[in-house]
Design brief:
Helix content of chain A: 10-25%
Radius of gyration of chain A: 18 Å
Distance between the termini of chain A: 21 Å
CATH superfamily of chain A: Class I glutamine amidotransferase (GATase) domain
Low-confidence stretches of chain A: none
Order of helices and strands of chain A: EHEHEHEHHEHEEEHEEEEEEEEE
Oligomer: homodimer
Chain lengths: 271, 271
């Protein structure tokens, strides 16, 4: 079977009135018959998992289950692992992305998510902290503001479902262009994806990304970077970066990760 | 053809009296007939490349060449790329690892090194900054001391020749256990390798690592980690980490990356 979707969401997605993102994810997973497992580990609020169970049930999904991994030993639980083996979709809630990487990193849970997303078509979505955790290089935390500064961002290893992207969330609301540029300047191999709140990137097995939601996605492509001064910048000092390409995409906009082409409206890429 | 060796060196390797590490690397690449390309980009000293050319020539290597990539556009140079296509070995000097990732990251040079190491048996060694750059998750810089502290280490994407290791260098000389533990605590997926000066890890295509040199290699394996508090630690606050396995290996010692087994002396692993 083929690769599943990877769906980072910028946080604060609409859950009641017009839950376009969660509805689209539920449909992708099979609609009424979908089995969706919710991992609320990023959150320290006990009710987070159950809240998402109710939202997915309101959308008609009959099998939504919450799996709370509160300690590393919980990730060995055969019942929880069996639920993940049977799931059509997994949803990672918001909270603190370092809770996800410290609780799940290097455990059978991370291994199942990676293997089944890559080989068995498991779809994996994450919102806010859950979105950050999806990439190989994860923004753990950082400072706000539009200008890149020396040492303003802390990267850590993430789940690794996307090897090409560095993902940031609450992007416009928390003014995070500076920290995304800083993260990309370290090594201009990756593409930056800054997700506004209530906005998701649906990334298909063909590496095409489509925007769903009420905000925008800022794509930062450093593949033609001419120069960056991050190797010389002291902590807090502004960093010079020349030659970055930037796209702002809204609902229906698309970006192809391999060809690095952006399209404003609906309609696919020529392949 | 098969994968080439990856050889991180802890810095300050002996070059005159008894250059055991460089001699072993030259032999691995084919001895007298070896074509070795030196990339001194991490260093800001103009003489670094030529110095290594002379050391390899003194060891009998007839084709040692230095390729200085001073600006990102230099990485497009067809002559330099052809030398890398023909090389048996590549040697990355010390300096600042962020100079390597900012100058080479996302360019054809990084692409050639990755492809030929993985598919065509190109051997790649790096010393000090050059060693750090070899892994997917690179320690860019950090604070000294044996105790892990919140936010004491800055990670950035590296070249990615090793996906399983996080490499640190000048390990005993600069007291870097704390920053290596902090880097591993973020996501206990990786294995930490702390290289003393004049000490190298020869990592073969079979994922077995062998120690060569006058110091030690500290291997930190967090696969049985029970708990870490890095997700709650403020900057500079000590971090609690429970259940890490640690090995100190000297000349001839071996560690197998897949099975995570350590052996003190010479002799191979059962596979």
């Amino acid at each position: 079977m083929s690769k599943g979707y990877v769906v980072p969401i910028g946080g604060a997605e609409e859950k009641m009135r017009d839950p376009a993102i969660l509805k689209r994810f539920a449909k992708l997973c099979g609609g009424r018959g979908a089995r969706i497992a919710i991992i609320p580990t990023a959150s320290q609020l006990r009710e987070t998992g159950d809240k998402y169970v109710r939202v997915f049930e309101d959308l008609g999904v009959r099998h939504a289950t919450t799996l709370s991994f509160e300690a590393r030993r919980d990730t060995q639980d055969p019942e929880a692992l069996e639920i993940l083996e049977q799931a059509d979709g997994v949803f990672l809630t918001g909270g603190n992305q370092l809770r996800l990487s410290t609780h799940i990193g290097g455990t059978p849970v991370a291994e199942v998510l990676r293997r089944r997303n890559l080989e068995e078509g498991l779809h994996v979505a994450g919102t806010s902290a859950g979105a950050s955790y999806l990439s190989e290089h994860m923004i753990a935390h950082g400072d706000d503001g539009p200008t890149p500064l020396g040492d303003m961002v802390t990267l850590a290893p993430g789940l690794g479902l996307s090897r090409q992207l560095i993902i940031d969330q609450h992007f416009r609301q928390r003014d995070r262009l500076g920290r995304l540029l800083t993260a990309l300047a370290y090594n201009p191999t990756h593409i930056g994806v800054g997700l506004d709140e209530d906005t998701a990137a649906f990334i298909g097995p063909d590496d095409a990304l489509e925007v769903v939601g009420s905000g925008a996605i800022t794509v930062v492509d450093p593949s033609e970077l001419e120069f960056s001064s991050i190797d010389q910048a002291q902590r807090g000092e502004p960093v010079s970066i020349l030659g970055v390409r930037l796209h702002v995409l809204v609902q229906g906009g698309r970006f192809h990760i391999r060809t690095r082409e952006a399209r404003p409206g609906r309609g696919g890429f020529q392949s």
